[in-house]
Design a protein that fits this description.
Keywords: Signal. One of its GO terms (cellular component) is endoplasmic reticulum. The chain has about 400 residues and is an alpha/beta fold. Helices cover about 30% and strands about 15% of the residues. Helix 4 runs parallel beside helix 8. The longest helix is centred in the C-terminal third of the chain and has 21 residues, at about 330-350. The protein is globular, with a radius of gyration of 22 Å. The structure holds 2-acetamido-2-deoxy-beta-D-glucopyranose (NAG) (5 copies).
């Protein structure tokens, strides 16, 4: 159902478009989101959560009314069909649904919706996660620079893996767990804007974070084992990286496998601290929207708060960790709002001076293939620059010759 009425501006846009055609010039090339109408929403920030608790934290807050307008967007999940925005449309919030598929599909739908203009919008992932006690404790707030996809690997059941493997997971196209993958799908790793991340961290650090007695008691069970010292400290704000997998892992060995994969795929620069089920899907959708000039990947912020540990405390089991280890949930949810609202306010207050024109990244920003241009500082190199025979170029050529089609056996 078309319900966006064409106002005078849109009619001018159509007219200009026709005029441009006669000169061999399309308006779309100048103004990709034409027709922009008076009802197009141009948010300054879009907060992305994944399930209802991650929306509730934004309801009834003093800073803004996220229910100022509700926009039904074709292509969103049947469970969460609406984007919610303030009346002015400067702050929006949506639920993408859980898991990689829901995340990618929902963000694609919204990013390509003609109801919005996201070219200057900051997309902030704001959800809970499993947290690595080597880095931080439950209740803490993390901002990632790298987002990896560790379940995109071969897998043997641990009971059937070769004796000399440290895990059942093996990078695709490789022969043992610590070998760099020789076959890439393009979604293995994303890097976001580090300068923007630092600004977000600065804003979040002004928050008075929440903690509870139950969370503090649970953190204390990680005491007495030196590698987990950081995990026993009260909630703080951290810069560390995220691993996306549909598989919700619990236990030291699987968490360590995610950690090792993150180390491998980021060429040793990534510092794994959170495990979650969506962020790679969100970032791939934003990357494609950027390629289509509908969003700016350099405006992505990945914020996750620790609701539970990825691995068990000393003296306890992975199964106890999964089923009885959720005491961090309340502060994690509260801190999505408490830290997140500072980021929202920071962006709104600094809009004219700083954020409107964007934060120019100083690091490589994009995927492992170099899709947005530049040379990835992880992975085998860009497939798009012809300035050398990078590993990825060779890899893609090889695939192009059909040597690695279909379901491939390890070489
Ligand atoms: C938007 O949806 C919420 C929750 O469903 C509702 O409480 C609110 O009144 C709606 N806002 C408008 C403007 O209709
Ligand atoms: C691991 O063991 C398998 C046999 O189970 C062997 O084929 C392989 O070469 C070994 N790999 C390494 C890295 O030692
Ligand atoms: C992770 O890597 C370290 C260092 O290479 C290794 O000792 C450990 O066994 C690996 N863990 C898993 C679960 O593969
Ligand atoms: C954290 O939140 C809980 C529940 O919302 C509340 O009872 C508690 O007082 C808060 N604690 C702090 C330190 O803000
Ligand atoms: C990352 O590591 C792989 C495997 O060792 C290597 O082929 C690649 O050149 C490295 N990439 C960068 C950017 O250093």
């Amino acid at each position: 159902m078309v319900f966006v009425h064409l106002n005078a501006l849109a009619i001018v846009a159509i007219f200009l478009n026709l005029a441009c055609h006669t000169t061999g010039f399309t308006l779309q090339s100048l103004w990709p989101n034409a027709l922009i109408t008076s009802s197009t929403i141009t948010p300054k920030i879009m907060i992305v959560g994944f399930y209802p608790d991650e929306q509730s934290v934004w309801e009834g807050i003093p800073e803004f009314d996220i229910f100022g307008q509700n926009i039904t967007v074709p292509g969103l999940s049947s469970q969460f069909p609406q984007v919610h925005c303030t009346k002015e449309g400067d702050v929006c919030q949506m639920l993408a649904g859980e898991g990689e598929i829901n995340a990618a599909s929902s963000i694609t739908a919204v990013a390509f919706s003609p109801l919005f203009d996201f070219r200057t919008t900051y997309f902030m992932i704001a959800g809970v996660a499993g947290i690595n006690p080597e880095i931080a404790g439950i209740g803490s707030v993390t901002f990632a620079q790298f987002v990896t996809q560790p379940a995109l690997q071969y897998e043997f059941d641990a009971r059937e893996k070769p004796e000399n493997y440290t895990t059942g997971y093996v990078p695709q196209g490789s022969q043992f767990p610590s070998q760099y993958p020789s076959e890439l799908y393009g979604t293995e790793c994303y890097e976001v804007n580090a300068r923007l991340k630092s600004l977000a961290v600065g804003f979040a650090k002004t928050a008075q974070l929440n903690d509870t007695a139950a969370a503090a008691r649970f953190r204390a069970t990680y005491r007495g084992y030196a590698p987990y010292a950081a995990g026993t400290t009260e909630p703080g704000v951290y810069e560390c990286d995220a691993a996306t997998a549909d598989v919700y892992v619990s236990g030291r060995l699987l968490s360590e496998a995610w950690q090792n994969y993150t180390h491998l795929i980021t060429n040793g620069t990534g510092k794994y601290c959170t495990t979650l089920q969506e962020d790679s899907g969100v970032l791939e959708a934003l990357l494609r929207a950027d390629l289509a000039k509908r969003a700016d990947f350099a405006r992505a912020i990945v914020m996750r708060t620790g609701s539970d540990y990825d691995r068990q405390a000393p003296e306890t089991s992975p199964i106890d960790n999964l089923y009885f280890g959720q005491d961090g949930y309340t502060p994690a949810l509260n801190n999505i709002y408490l830290a997140g609202v500072k980021v929202v306010q920071g962006i709104l207050m600094g809009w004219e001076r700083t954020f409107k024109r964007g934060i120019t990244p100083e690091n490589y920003v994009g995927d492992i293939l170099g899709s947005l241009g530049g040379r990835p500082d992880f992975g085998p190199g860009s497939i798009f620059t012809m300035d050398g025979e990078s590993g990825t170029t060779q890899l893609m050529r090889k695939r192009g010759r059909g040597q690695l089609r279909g379901r491939r056996r390890p070489l």
